[in-house]
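ok trying again, last paste got cut off:
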Amino acid sequence: MARLWRLDLPLSTTPPSDSYFDRAAFARLAESEPGHFWFEERNRLIGWALRRYFPAGGSFCEVGCGTGFVLQAIAAEFPGLNLIGVDVFPEGLVFARRRVARARLLCSDLFAQFLDEAVDVVGAFDILEHIPDDTAALLRLRDLIRPGGGLLLTVPQHPSLWSIADEIGHHQRRYARGELHHKVEAAGFSVLRLTSFMFFPLPALWWNRRRARQPERVLAELRPSRPANGLLRGVLRLERGLIRAGADLPVGGSLLLAARRA
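nice, full thing came through this time. structure:
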């Protein structure tokens, strides 16, 4: 198994590209994630999907773990799970180390060789849209997973929602549902579940993205008012209940996908 990541000994010899992400944003993210309706409810949805579709998994690798906010939630919910976090930016991994002391953290580009053996489940949460060649990225993710193992993805949905927020986030694309399904299956996976989320807030999201022309307006989404944050948290809890009951929400700001490697 790969060794523990160290600040002075990164695995990757290739400097991370700022076209993937703004490395200065990690401190802002680490401050905004706790208590924020979207980050916390997405974590709960991911935890449910991991338990629902891959209950026997003993090892989990998050690619693009950033500040470790997702890994922290998974560590709390699955105390026996062997956790690995990988990110190309050491700036994010500094926060991840504080949050998830028991995880193995590796500083590496996705396309570098950073694992000595495949894992049971790989997660990539709002990462795929940052990578120019997402087809190659999905094939690389498949290589990290043992045969019969699982893949969990979240990505932003609806190309029509493209806005300055995507540009600030260094996104390459937003996904249509059929596009993501096709690309994942073409990479050698069998899709188990594909559903939208952020369904009920979609009209407000669309309106906000249409009128937000300045970066300051977009960054304000990281600091919702307490009433708005509470309302949206409740709405996403309702969505999660519907998804757990078997509903595949038809539209929404994001997509959740669970797939099994053939």
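cool. The longest helix spans residues 226-244. The first strand starts at residue 59 and ends at 63.
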